[in-house]
Amino acid sequence: MTSRAHVKNKNAAPRGARQFVYPFRAIVGQEEMKLALLLNVIDPLIGGVLIMGHRGTGKSTAVRALADLLPLIWKARGCFYGCDPADVESLCVDCSEQLKTKGKLQREQARVRVVDLPLGATEDRVCGTINFQKALTTGVKAFEPGLLARANRGFLYVDEVNLLEDHLVDLLLDVAVTGRNTVEREGISLEHPARFVLVGSGNPEEGELRPQLLDRFGLFAEIQTLNDLDQRVKIVELREAFERDAEKFCADYEAEQQSLRRKLARAGKLAGKVKLSRELLRGIASLCLRLGIDGHRGELTIARAARALAAFEGRREVREEDVRRVASLCVSHRLRRDPLEPTGGGARIEQALDNSFQSSGEQRDKGQPESAYGSNTDVRNAGSENSGESGKHDQGNNKTHPLPAPLDAQLPAESLTQDLHSSMRQAKTNSARQQRSTKNETY
């Protein structure tokens, strides 16, 4: 009996029997997906990530592999929510009472949890409900925590999120933003911490998420089945090696895994100290204006993600290359969809990036403030600025402009309309005069 108890305690310990997980560093390709996940580890306030792609492309494997990279965390001993003893403002009710009575919280180490939310989960299972068994036996209304409570300070993974009920998706996104879950059930009103990184995945062929819900995810990664022959062969070889001997396979990658763990830990501490220049911030805002993105989540997410990437690279200042790398992840799901566009908006984003940062740099060199009205204003300004010296530029150094000003950008609409009517009247007058002249000659 003593031996059994000893085995049970050993398994419950943080460093007990280990279930081997496919190493994150062994995942082949899918760089956008891996970058999006890593950025959310560095700064959870980015807002999670939505991964869309075909089945069997490594979505769930990557999420579970990511959790193995995270270090052990300190939690209040015996707390179901895993409260952080150092964060007094975010404690659950039980931990707050214990802190008041005893003056301090006992702590223990635990691994970051990755909680799966099944497709058929009910709202009670997700948010929590009344423990009816305890209520019937003791007469006390007790709260039974749900999946959101279990996911606190960890990851909540929703596979096939595009098939989940809309009201549940709304609920998940609201809680992910606020970090608190409020439960109103059968006379019980309770609030508990629920800070987690929300990761959703799905197959776009099985249905799309509503645009309002898409906008609530911080990042979006669209992954494709790899078409490179060598990469496909390598995937099969690595997977078979893992299935033959998972312990040896993980040991072979442990050095790379440990290096990535240290890098993530340093980046998490550095992210809050990374600076973003006003010039780059104006470029980010200009990008969102040019793409016609509604709201301001686009700018906020790009700024956070760029800082996280700079911290991951060990830098204290964001560069333009950081913004370019994260821009597509941050805004591709916020674009207004064009069904005739085969690239899914990638070409639009690249062109908008070039125009935004090119115009920002040119205006900085000229000492002029950047316009806040996007590409049309830039075109009109280009036409007016160069109109006086167009002959010199065209004849002298044969300079060309990347965005020539169209006619409607140079003249107001009223002027164009008046000129058109005047031309039509003049044409009618000339025609009438010609007819009268012809008649006079005939007679």
Structure description:
The protein is an alpha/beta fold and 443 residues long. The chain has a domain at 22-72 and 111-223 and 239-246 and 253-273: 3-Layer(aba) Sandwich (Rossmann fold), CATH 3.40.50. It is 52% helix and 12% strand. The strands form 4 sheets. A 5-stranded parallel sheet has the order 4-7-10-1-11, with helices on both faces. A two-stranded antiparallel ribbon has the order 2-3. Strands 5-6 form a two-stranded antiparallel ribbon. Helix 2 packs parallel to helix 3 and helix 11 crosses helix 13. The model is unreliable at 1-16, 366-420 and 438-443 (pLDDT under 50).
Overview in brief:
Helix content is 52%, strand content 12%.
Q: Write down the oligomeric state.
A: single chain
Largest sheet: 5 strands, parallel
Order of helices and strands: HHEHEHEEHEHEHEHEEEHEHHHHHHHHHH
| Mean pLDDT metric | 75
Radius of gyration: 30 Å
How big a fraction of the residues is strand? 5-15%
The CATH class of the domain at 22-72 and 111-223 and 239-246 and 253-273: Alpha Beta
Low-confidence stretches: 1-16, 366-420, 438-443
Helix proportion of residues, in percent?
40-55%
First and last CA, distance? 131 Å
**What is the SS-derived class?**
alpha/beta
Query: What is the CATH superfamily label of the domain at 22-72 and 111-223 and 239-246 and 253-273?
Result: P-loop containing nucleotide triphosphate hydrolases
What CATH architecture of the domain at 22-72 and 111-223 and 239-246 and 253-273 do you see? 3-Layer(aba) Sandwich
Spatially, the strands of the biggest sheet line up as 4-7-10-1-11
Query: Which fold name fills CATH's third level, the topology of the domain at 22-72 and 111-223 and 239-246 and 253-273?
Result: Rossmann fold
Shape: globular
| Number of E-type strands | 11
Q: How many helical elements? A: 19
